[in-house]
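Input record (one chain):
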Amino acid sequence: MENKPVYALNLFDVSDRDEYLAYSKRSASEVAAHGGRVIALGKFRESVRGDIAPRNVLILVEWESPEAFRSYLEDPALADLHPHREKGGGNYIWHLFDRLDDLRPILKQE
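The corresponding structure, as predicted from the sequence alone:
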């Protein structure tokens, strides 16, 4: 069992406002109940560099661990919640990143 925090980067477009509203009304409390904390919300401003197609919304969630994230996805009590996210968000990119205190683990020579 890993106890290291992870970040979930969510980039997406709202494809169905009512569906995403149904998701967002309940998601914040459920994310918190499963060990997550929304640390950033953003609306797309401009593309500066890169080959990814812009998405309108950014949400960055810090999870206590990968297991906490998985518990949110796999909780049977939330089976009615996740379809609202799936129907309400389009062009979804959802990536997990390990939390680092600095860049040494990435920059060290092998």
